[in-house]
Amino acid sequence: MVLIELDRVGKSFAGRHGQMVIMQDISFHVNDAEFVSIVGPSGCGKSTLLRLIQGLDRPTEGEIRFRGEPVRTVCLGMAMVFQNFALYPWLTVRENVGFGLEALHKPPEQIRATVDRYISVTGLVGFEEAYPRELSGGMRQRVGLARALAVDPTILLMDEPFSALDALTAEGLREEVLQLWQDPALPPEGVLLVTHNIEEAISLSDRVIVLSRRPARILEDVKVDLPRPRDRKSDAFYQLTDHVYSLITEGVQVKPSPPGSVST
């Protein structure tokens, strides 16, 4: 089943010297039970694309559909995890996690039970009454993740969620996100990740959408047909990484080396 579908999406803004075209002719989809990443050069519009998908902004051209229905406003079937945590500093962990449920006017008993559940699954037990300033970066991102999962999203949108963390914390949280996504008892059904880290995209994703420089177009929809857990030291992983890197730096499609071959 197709969860998200982009059909020839374009976005432009009025600038001092005329229209500034951010992206053109963007078409791809995200299926049920699929983890998809978007990579591309800095400034190509990756984060803007996530905002369009969630309905926080409208495309200038084309259409975005969620479960076959056009996205006209903020889509409640999606939730976002941000790069800078985006927590409310005056709220405790428990209050931050429950914020979206409060906004949806859920009953207090349901809010309490749901918050307890996602505090538990994201490893925040014991920190319920802490404030964001009292938490490490990794713990703050766990709060952001718990808040997003608490609203039971069909699609989890992630905007460079690990880039502000140190390498070891980021790696641990990547593995936890993957485990949560693979658990059939937990949302979401699909994940769409924006990242500048090519290895991160390949280690997590089923497919990697590679965007060009602005105005962004899709250079290639790269299938990552590697078993999980993925070995970053394998030849196949290296070749995929090199292929995506070449796409981004050269800005044109290149044919990847066949598995087992060695690039020179």
What is the topology?
Elements: E1 2-15, E2 18-31, E3 34-39, H1 46-54, E4 61-66, E5 69-70, E6 78-81, H2 93-97, H3 99-103, H4 108-121, H5 137-150, E7 155-159, H6 167-182, E8 190-194, H7 198-204, E9 207-211, E10 218-223, H8 235-250
What does this protein look like?
It contains eight helices and ten strands. The chain is an alpha/beta fold and 264 residues long. The strands form two sheets. It has a six-stranded mixed sheet with strand order 6-7-8-3-9-10, sandwiched between helices. Strands 2-1-4-5 form a four-stranded antiparallel sheet, with no helix packed on it. Helix 4 crosses helix 5. The longest helix has 16 residues. It starts with a strand and ends in a 14-residue tail after the last helix.
Task: Describe what is shown at a glance.
By secondary structure, the chain is of the alpha/beta class. It has helices at residues 46-54, 93-97, 99-103, 108-121, 137-150, 167-182, 198-204, 235-250; strands at 2-15, 18-31, 34-39, 61-66, 69-70, 78-81, 155-159, 190-194, 207-211, 218-223. It has a six-stranded mixed sheet, sandwiched between helices. Strands 2-1-4-5 form a four-stranded antiparallel sheet, with no helix packed on it.
